[in-house]
Amino acid sequence: MKILYFAWLRSKIGVPTETVELPTEVSTAGDLVEWLKTRSPRHAEALANSKLVKVAVNQEHVPYDHPISATDEIALFPPVTGG
Amino acid sequence: MAIRVQAEDFDVGAEYAAFTVGRTSVGGVAMFVGLVRDIAGGAAVSAMTLEHYPGMTEKQLEAIGEEARRRWPLDDVLVIHRYGRLEPGDRIVMVATASAHRDAAFESCRFLMDWLKTKAPFWKLEATPEGERWVEAKETDDAAAARWAE
């Protein structure tokens, strides 16, 4: 699964994208955020406050209970600040 | 409906002219243009860099535009949003709505901006004398978007 990071999540984690092999127990957006925290101290720090970590699946905003699958395009980013 | 996400500046007068040409059923156009301010949260801002999520940005702006057209009787909608490095005074965003009557034009223009600020995947990085900082989302923006809940 390919994951994209934006804004300060990208700079804190240190890469704009990464490809991961999902364990079978990771089935929702929220599961993914929790699991990503275990990948490195940088991930853990960047993803610590879930209020500031938004998830998009296939370019749509989704809540943490949204299901995910290996073929989805997943992006993690802070609350948006455009306009 | 036209949605444009671009690094280049735009000419508001030319956009208005193109938006209305030949449209004699339109009774009014409402427009909003957002600019880069030179001060934010008490700090001087010398530049701002807008990052976005290519693909999702266009998809979300299209969806917001379609939602406006569903809610109000609009002849047309225009959204232009820039990305990249901008300086104080530069234009960031333009929204225009055209309708037979002013209420639909005014209301939908405000709706588009309120929804865009909470749904379109853009992030602002400000350059200040203390260094660069990412702009934090405002609760007032969430409240402004929530006003339009059906």
Automatic annotation (TrEMBL), chain A:
GO terms for cellular component: molybdopterin adenylyltransferase complex. It holds the Pfam family ThiS. The keyword Nucleotide-binding applies. One of its GO terms (biological process) is Mo-molybdopterin cofactor biosynthetic process. GO terms for molecular function: nucleotide binding. Keywords: Nucleotide-binding. The keyword NADP does not apply. NCBIfam families: moaD, moaD_arch. Belongs to the MoaD family. This is Molybdopterin synthase sulfur carrier subunit. The lineage of its organism: Bacteria, Pseudomonadati, Pseudomonadota, Alphaproteobacteria, Rhodospirillales.
TrEMBL record, chain B:
It is an enzyme of class 2 (transferase). Keywords: Molybdenum cofactor biosynthesis, Transferase. SUPFAM superfamilies: Molybdopterin synthase subunit MoaE. Its EC number is 2.8.1.12. Pathway: Cofactor biosynthesis; molybdopterin biosynthesis. InterPro entries: MoaE_sf, Mopterin_biosynth_MoaE. It holds the Pfam family MoaE. GO terms for molecular function: molybdopterin synthase activity. Converts molybdopterin precursor Z into molybdopterin. This requires the incorporation of two sulfur atoms into precursor Z to generate a dithiolene group. The sulfur is provided by MoaD. Belongs to the MoaE family. This is Molybdopterin synthase catalytic subunit. The lineage of its organism: Bacteria, Pseudomonadati, Pseudomonadota, Alphaproteobacteria, Rhodospirillales.
